[in-house]
């Protein structure tokens, strides 16, 4: 499932790059804070529906939490600001929710 999740982002941002800022690990978890960057040149599938390519650049923070049991990932969660993403992709105006 995690590979499928990542493939969805790669499909939407074919030049995607990740810059890890912090990473913390224990026996049962890994937490990674990173910047995700790329041009929105493919369809982004979301739970609310598909977002057609905007050709705009995305540059924002993400956080992923992986739960590990017996050396295998058993759960993965990703946290990011969807408002920032929607503004950067031109889905909502810059003035909505900005500081």
Provide a descriptive summary of the structure in words.
This protein is α+β, with helices and mostly antiparallel strands and 99 residues long. The chain has two helices and six strands. The strands form two sheets. It has a four-stranded antiparallel beta sheet with strand order 1-2-5-6. It has a two-stranded antiparallel sheet with strand order 3-4. The radius of gyration is 15 Å and the shape is elongated. 5% of the residues are buried. The mean pLDDT is 92.
> How far from one another are the termini?
35 Å
For the biggest β-sheet, the strand order reads 1-2-5-6
Number of helix segments?
A: 2
Ranges with pLDDT <50 over ≥5 residues? none
Largest sheet composition: 4 strands, antiparallel
Report the count of strand segments.
Answer: 6
């Amino acid at each position: 499932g995690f590979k499928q999740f990542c493939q969805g982002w790669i499909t939407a941002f074919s030049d995607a790059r990740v810059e890890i800022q912090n990473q913390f690990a224990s026996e049962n978890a890994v937490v990674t804070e990173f910047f995700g960057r790329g041009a929105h040149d493919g369809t982004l599938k979301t739970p609310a529906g598909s977002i057609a390519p905007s050709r705009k650049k995305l540059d924002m923070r993400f956080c992923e939490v992986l739960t590990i049991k017996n050396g295998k990932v058993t759960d993965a969660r990703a946290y990011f600001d969807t408002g920032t993403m929607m503004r950067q992709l031109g889905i909502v105006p810059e003035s909505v929710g900005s500081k």
